[in-house]
């Protein structure tokens, strides 16, 4: 079986996960950074849980939720399916939840670092809250967006425990890169395992180096 199949599937999963997390994580990070609600840290704790939970614990509960007897089974029945577990859609849901803190936290930190003064200055110029957000907050928080996007993408590329539990090892459907490496090792296909593992090593190094370089450039360009 071609080693490109799990690579392309993993790239697709990581790209979709990153885009969706930026869309839903940005307003969540903004609320966590600006809200005065006493219970916001409880929400932040829920978002951060994947950082400390063993992947098997999160994978187990996701398997229950996405399975035929959970909400995932009901959703799948709308288009004739039986379950969201062991499907690409299930992998996507699991990846979004598992990688969420890696995207939300850097963006929240960037929003908090802005402070009140730039936002108050925009308000005195009669900018609407929406205009202030897109023309002031988002540009000033660009380092957080970069960090969140890169970390979210890289973390999804390297997922193992969660995706194995909720997706299994179905070629072309749920057999992502990390699972394929394990499969090649177990079947003593050392050449394929070396190619994928070495590729991930190079990818991880390139991601970290690129992020550090871009962050320094953004820092120097920051007004």
Give the topology string: H per helix, E per strand: HHHHHHHHHHH
Low-confidence stretches: none
- Residue share in β-strands: under 5%
Q: Would you report the number of β strands?
A: 0
Structural class: mainly alpha
Distance between the first and last residues' Cα: 52 Å
Mean of pLDDT: 89
Q: Globular, elongated, flat, extended or rod-shaped: what is the shape?
A: globular
* Structural Rg: 20 Å
Number of helices: 11
Percent range for helical residues? over 70%
Query: How would you sum up the major sheet?
Result: none
Descriptive tags:
single chain; about 220 residues
Question: What's the quick description here?
Answer:
This protein is 77% helix and 0% strand. The protein is mainly alpha-helical.
Structural description of this entry:
The longest helix has 32 residues, at 190-221. The chain has helices at 4-34, 40-48, 55-66, 71-77, 88-114, 117-124, 129-140, 142-157, 161-167, 177-186, 190-221. Helix 1 (4-34) packs parallel to helix 5 (88-114), helix 5 (88-114) packs antiparallel against helix 8 (142-157) and helix 8 runs antiparallel to helix 11 (190-221). Helices cover 77% and strands 0% of the residues. The chain is globular, with a radius of gyration of 20 Å. The termini are far apart. 33% of the residues are buried. The protein is mainly α and 223 residues long. It has 11 helices and no strands.
